[in-house]
Every structure is written in structure tokens, then in C-alpha cells.
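Q: Could you fold this chain for me?
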Amino acid sequence: MQKNNFILDGFVWSFSRVSSFTICQYCFWLQYIQGKRGIDSFFGQYGSFVHDLLERYNKGELFAFELAYEYENRYAENVTKKVSDKISENYYNQGHEFFKNFEEPDYEVLCCEQEYLFKVGEYQFTGKVDVETSDAIVDYKTKSSKAYKRKPKDKNVRQLHDGRYVDLDEFIQLYIYCIPYKEKYGKFPDKLILEMVKIGDRYVLDFNKDDFDWCVAYIIYQIESIYNTVEFTKTESEFWCNQICGQRFNCKGVE
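A: Sure. Below is the predicted structure, expressed as C-alpha cells.
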């Protein structure tokens, strides 16, 4: 029995917990095994602020034409962490462009920002679904993500509705959220949609049962890897360590 099992056995897992391990095992260890208090980052605050505006819109608390105004006037009080001037300006401008040109979606929102408790294999899992429609799950992303016009040979990609290709990894979280969706509606969604706020794009992918099974197996594999890890190693990404990681001031390798 691994020494951390008694802690891990009490976890309610989430996609962010699993993802933190795949990005930096040492960050996972500090955050979830040692229980060190983390700090927020510019990117975390930015993402939370954008999600808050979109949640208010989807709940009918804001009209589409009010989004850009709210973004402009509440940005400074919600995004207080610092990053380079170039990155800050880029994020602000792209977010402003998204809300200024916001197009009301052609789907009816049945539910938004609903948190669910469900199982992935034998593991308790929790997740908050941004938007549910009668035939789709929608997730808002504030990171950049590349869609390929031509199918690359060295990547595990899937074809979007518009003919472009995107890494399947981008849809793992949405595929996992298909579990509570099916439990609630009695069927899997027909589509998975990523609303890419920062780059003003939309990725629409047809649900595929084989890919769903792969994503579930992937999450289970990662959780089992955490159970089997004895020494949690540190990532070599300087930008992650110094700008994004919530444990950056508890990490010995960060100055």
C-alpha cells in the first residue's frame, strides 16, 4: 500500500485535479497531498471573470449587448494579478473583442454552471458543466488552442463540423461530463462544443462512443498513476512554474 493511499481514498476527483498531476506532479503533491494553500494567478482570475459574465448571460441576468460594457467596467477589480504587459494587453483585448462581437448562440440553454457528483469507473468525481442543451454540452475556454486546417500525421486529432481538426485531448473534460449528462437526460449528447473565448472561435465535435470510452479509460489510468507514484517530479516548464502554478511560492525551484 502506498503511503498516500489513505489521503487519495478520501478524494472526490475532478478534471482539474487530474490535469494538475499531468502538468506537474510536484504541484499536485503540494496542493492535494500536503494541503499547501495556493495562490491565484492572472490566468485563473481572467478565466473566472469571463466565466462569471457568461454565466450571468446564460441565466438571463445580462443581455448580450451588456457583456462588453460589463467586461470593460469590472475587469480591473476582478483581474488584479500581474503578468507581463504584453500578455495582459493581449488577453484584455481579445476578451473585449469576444464580448463586443458576441453572437447569441443558436441553442437553447437548459441548464448552466450545474455541479454534479458522479463516478468515473470506481472513483467519485465532481464537475461543473458550463452549459447544457437538449443535444450538446458546451464549455467555455479562455486558453489558446490550435485547430488544424489539414490533418496532422503525428497527433491524435478529430475532425470538427467545419472540417478542421483538433486534438482529442481538448475534449476529454467534456467527454467525462457526458456521464452526468446521460444520467440526467437518459442519453449522450449529440455534440460537444468548445467556445474559445480568447481566440473568438468555436469547436463543434460530434459525440463518439469510442472516444468517450477512451477518455474515461484515460482518466482512470491517470488516477491509478497517481496512486502508484512514489516520487512526485517537478515540471520543466518555466512559464508554468513562474506564472500559472498556484503552488509557485511553495515550490523550492521557483525564485
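A (continued): The longest helix spans residues 209-228.
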